[in-house]
Write a structure and sequence with these properties.
The complex is a heterodimer of chains A (about 400) and B (about 190). By secondary structure, chain A is an alpha/beta fold. Helix content of chain A is about 40%, strand content about 20%. Chain A contains twelve helices and 15 strands. The longest helix of chain A has 30 residues. Chain B has a single domain, classed as Pyruvate-ferredoxin Oxidoreductase, domain 3 (3-Layer(aba) Sandwich). In chain B, α1 crosses α6 and α7 packs antiparallel against α8. The two termini of chain B are about 20 Å apart. The chains are: A alpha/beta (about 400), B alpha/beta (about 190).
């Protein structure tokens, strides 16, 4: 095993990318992601990483170059945030449809306007329909480990889909903490570099990204859907294997709290940790509460979510993104409600929107959400608020 | 859990101070987090940074509202209500100033009531003498660890030697040693 060293979240990610021995990195700087690729440039410059760094003029080009390099068979990495991710949107569909196992980190950040460099999940949620496998870490060890896990999953011949690994901007990217660094030999033995996908080769020419006319397009899309669906199995197997090899387990969904909870908050990213800390602090009160962490967002692990929530009285879904005009303006809430309805589970749900644009989700906010849930848990569904409750906003 | 809040201005190095302190704690086998209050980075603007140190894993990433220790890098910030807000009873206030701890205690009534240990050091003069620049972060790390003993001098020095280029590292090691030695404390 590697040794434990103090690293920022962005450095922790960069060290994992180095250990994954990537061949090509193509990126354009944007806060709070920038120091990931800066660190990687440093690794290349001092000879610790033998990779090609492609400097481009925009994020659109960054992902386009990644697509080209992956199509040529390279192990590829890029990272971005916010408007950078928005600019990649067009190419994200192409990467997933061409079935290229690119790994990209999103250092999550709000979208303009107003201009805001701070953390929320607007960028992550905005690209959740682009056909990428998507996961989000709660702490920086997990953000580090996710990179290795992501290559293992992406390049599995049964999957061949690009993967987003996300970590919260600033709350994680710029926070120093102890990281058990996975060394190159360990990373490559867990996720060996094999060309498992069709690649461009002058000796055996193939066409990629050809026209898919009405005779063929639909079949391609169906296959892509099947690949994403099937990836769940591979993801579960990879999580198990990671836990066996490295002793750290990151389930697609993880519950923390009382054994028979009545009230559960569902959350993603660093806020899960804040809720854990709050519950630990309040443990003496002996209340039947818990937190459900959603790590895997695509494919959405609805079976596990239903299993954890089916006997719970009421849940509050903590969203850190807002989709005005949606029947559920909180995107995670929307996924959860759909999952519960599909499985005919009648757990009551409330939508909380909080922490937009870098506003911290404090213990006070968590307390407000939990007491709101306790207050409403015995009310009939008809009396529950249908609109999201905004926590920590000035009216 | 031991929580430290650092108050300075852009350019004084509060963020690095929080980071070096956490890194020294991690070196000593603790779990620690260091993070700045993330603002737009401008020289001269007020900067707050945080260090959390614990024996076990730390989940909490919320800003520190009830610190065990407050470290003030800019002497003129001491009267700001934000600086002393939530400082725990029996906690530490460590200030970069030419004044004596007793003068600070006389100036701010709450400190006696809350039995705050007050420590002062003229970090600006130490930094100007040795580094020739008013970057007081390493001097204030020396002051913090002299007052609280939360991490050892050796661990801090090791981190500084890893973090800074050799010449700058030695300058900062001298600063830390000097500040560690010169710190004045009144414990209540």
């Amino acid at each position: 095993m590697g040794k434990v060293v103090p690293l920022s979240g962005n450095s922790a990610v960069a060290y994992a990318v180095k250990s994954a021995d990537v061949d090509v990195i193509s990126a354009y700087p944007i806060t709070p992601q920038t120091t990931i690729v800066e660190k990687l440039a440093e690794f290349i410059a001092n000879g610790e990483l033998d990779a090609e760094m492609i400097h481009v003029e925009s994020e659109h080009s960054a992902l386009s170059a990644a697509v080209g390099a992956a199509a040529a068979g390279a192990r590829v990495y890029t990272a971005s945030s916010s408007q950078g991710i928005a600019l990649m949107y067009e190419i994200m569909f192409i990467a997933s449809s061409l079935r290229l196992p690119i790994v990209m980190t999103i250092a999550t950040r709000a979208l303009s306007a107003p201009i805001n460099i701070w953390n929320d999940h607007s960028d992550f949620m905005a690209v959740s329909d682009t056909g990428w496998i998507m996961m989000m870490a709660e702490n920086n060890q997990e953000a580090h480990d996710d990179i290795i896990l992501a290559y293992k999953i992406a390049e599995n011949p049964e999957v061949l889909l690009p993967v987003v690994t996300a970590l919260d901007g600033y709350f994680m990217t710029h926070t120093t903490e102890p990281i058990n660094v996975i060394e190159r030999e360990e990373a490559l033995s867990f996720a060996p570099k094999r060309k498992t996908w069709f690649t461009l080769d002058p000796d055996k020419p193939v066409t990629m990204g050809a026209l898919g006319d009405p005779q063929w397009y639909f079949e391609f899309k169906k296959q892509q859907y099947e690949a994403m669906k099937k990836s769940r199995e591979v993801i579960e197997r990879s999580i198990d294997e990671f836990a066996r090899v490295f002793g750290r387990r990151y389930n697609a969904v993880e519950f923390y709290g009382d054994e028979n909870p009545e009230v559960v908050l569902v959350a993603m990213g660093h806020v899960v940790g804040n809720i854990r800390a709050y519950l630990n602090k309040m443990r003496s009160k002996n209340s039947r509460v818990g937190v459900l962490k959603v790590k895997l967002y695509r494919p959405f692990p609805e079976d596990l979510i239903v299993r954890y929530l089916e006997d719970v009285e009421i849940i509050g879904v903590v969203d850190r993104a807002l989709i005005p005009g949606s029947s559920s303006p909180g995107p995670l809430h929307s996924e959860i409600v759909t999952a519960l309805r599909k499985h005919e589970v009648n757990t009551k749900t409330l939508s909380f929107v909080t922490g937009l644009g870098g506003r911290p989700v404090t213990h006070e906010h968590i307390g407000v959400m939990l007491s709101k849930l306790s207050e409403l848990k015995d009310k009939p569904v008809s009396e529950l608020p249908r609109e999201p409750l905004f926590i920590g906003v000035r009216e | 859990m031991f929580e430290i809040r650092w108050h300075g201005r852009g350019g004084m190095g509060a963020v690095t101070a929080a980071d070096v302190t956490a890194s020294a704690a991690i070196k000593a086998g603790f779990y620690a987090l260091a993070f700045p209050e993330f603002g737009a980075e401008r020289r001269g603007a007020p900067v707050t940074a945080y260090t959390r140190i614990n024996k076990e894993i730390i989940y909490d990433r919320t800003p520190i509202t009830n610190p065990d220790a407050v470290v003030v890098l800019d002497p003129y910030m001491i009267t700001s209500p934000k600086v002393l807000a939530g400082l725990k009873e029996g906690g530490y206030l460590i200030v970069n100033t030419t004044r004596e701890p007793s003068e600070i205690l006389d100036q701010i009534a709450d400190l006696r009531r809350l039995r705050i240990a007050v420590a002062t050091v003229d970090a600006t003069s130490i930094a100007m003498n040795i580094l020739k620049q008013p970057i007081v972060n390493t001097a204030m790390i020396g002051a913090l660890i002299a007052a609280t003993k939360i991490v050892s001098l050796d661990d801090v020095i090791e981190v500084v030697r890893e973090r800074f280029p050799e010449r700058l590292a030695e300058i900062n090691v001298n600063i830390i040693n000097e500040s560690y030695k010169l710190l004045k404390v009144i414990k209540q």
